[in-house]
Amino acid sequence: xxxxxxxxxxxxxxxxxxxxxxxxxxxxxxxxxxxxxxxxxxxxxxxxxxxxxxxxxxxxxxxxxxxxxxxxxxxxxxxxxxxxxxxxxxxxxxxxxxxxxxxxxxxxxxxxxxxxxxxxxxxxxxxxxxxxxxxxxxxxxxxxxxxxxxxxxxxxxxxxxxxxxxxxxxxxxxxxxxxxxxxxxxxxxxxxxxxxxxxxxxxxxxxxxxxxxxxxxxxxxxxxxxxxxxxxxxxxxxxxxxxxxxxxxxxxxxxxxxxxxxxxxxxxxxxxxxxxxxxxxxxxxxxxxxxxxxxxxxxxxxxxxxxxxxxxxxxxxxxxxxxxxxxxxxxxxxxxxxxxxxxxxxxxxxxxxxxxxxxxxxxxxxxxxxxxxxxxxxxxxxxxxxxxxxxxxxxxxx
Length: 398
Prior knowledge:
Elements: E1 2-10, H1 15-26, E2 30-36, E3 48-52, H2 75-110, E4 115-119, H3 124-134, E5 137-142, H4 157-171, E6 176-179, H5 182-190, E7 196-198, E8 218-222, H6 231-241, E9 245-249, E10 264-266, H7 271-281, E11 282-286, H8 293-296, H9 301-309, E12 313-316, H10 319-328, E13 331-334, H11 339-351, H12 353-363, H13 369-384
Parallel strand pairs: 1-2, 1-4, 2-3, 4-5, 5-6, 6-7, 8-9, 8-11, 9-10, 11-12, 12-13
C-alpha cells in the first residue's frame, strides 16, 4: 500500500518513526513521510521518501543550556518568566496549528494515499481530514498519553478534558491505534478506543554484545537533558555516590539550567556510539519525574537501549517501568525525587551486578525491535485485506 506518515517531530532524530517506516517498506509498502527539520539529502531506506515542513521555534529567550547555578533573578526576570508561564499553552497550540496549516498543501499535493498514519495527536486532525477525502485508511500512532503529559506553562484542565474527548472522536475513525506501552493502551481502551496495539520503543538486537564488566565504572544518563527527567535528583545522588562517576550525555533543552555539582557531561552521540558508551560505564540511568500520568505509564527509549547494549538499569519506580524491570530482572528501582533512594538503588545494583547483567542479556530475546516490528507489519497486513475506508472527521474542537 501507499502510506503517508505525518509527524511534527524532527524526523532525522525520531528513531521510532524511522524504524516503523523502514519495517513497513521492508514488508513491501511505499512510505512517504511529511515531518519537520529534515536535513537536505536525508535518506531513510529504500521505499521511503521524506519531505520537511518547518515550525516556529517557540517562546525561547536566550541560549540557556547546562550551567552551574540557577540563572538570573530580579523583578524584571520574574515578570518575564510569569508572562511566559501564562502564555505558553496558547503559544504551543498555535505553533502546532500553524504547522498543520503549512503542511496541508504538501499533504494534498503528495496524495492520494491508501493509508494515512498520524504520529501523535498534533497531526491526527490533519491526517483524519485527508484520509476522509481520499477514502483512505487512518492509523493513529500515539507515542505518549497526549493530554496527560507534564507540560510547561500554566495549568489547562479544561483544554485537557476537551482534548481527550476530541482525541477519541478522531481516533475512533482509525482502523486501529498504536501506542508504546500496555499501560497507555489500557487507558485509551478505557476511554473508548477498542482496537489499540502495542508497538514498544525497542531497538534492533545487537549483532554482538561483549561480555559484561566485572564491576560497573559509573552511571550514564543517555537522553534528552531537560525538565521532567528528574536530573536534580541525579545530581543530588551523585554527591552521595562520589567518587563513583555519574555522567549525562545528550542534547540540552533550550533554557534548561542545572547545577551540575559532581556530574560529568559528554557530547551527544549516535545510537551505536551510545551502545559502546553505556557498556564502558556499565549502568544506565532511566529517570522520569512522577508528575503526570504519561510518565507513570511510559516506557522510555533509553530503557530498551540499555537492553540492546546489554547494560543493567537503575530506573524510576513508576508502574509501567516497574513491571518491565522486575519481570525481566533488568536492574533496580528508585523513588523519583528521592536522592537517598537513588543512591540505595545504585549501590544495590553494584552489589548484585552479575545477576542483573545476566537478566538484561536474557531479556534481549523478547525486548527487541524484531518482535515489535512484527506486530506493526502484521497490523498493516490486516489493513491491506480490508475494503477502502470512508473516514469523515468530526468538526474541530475549539
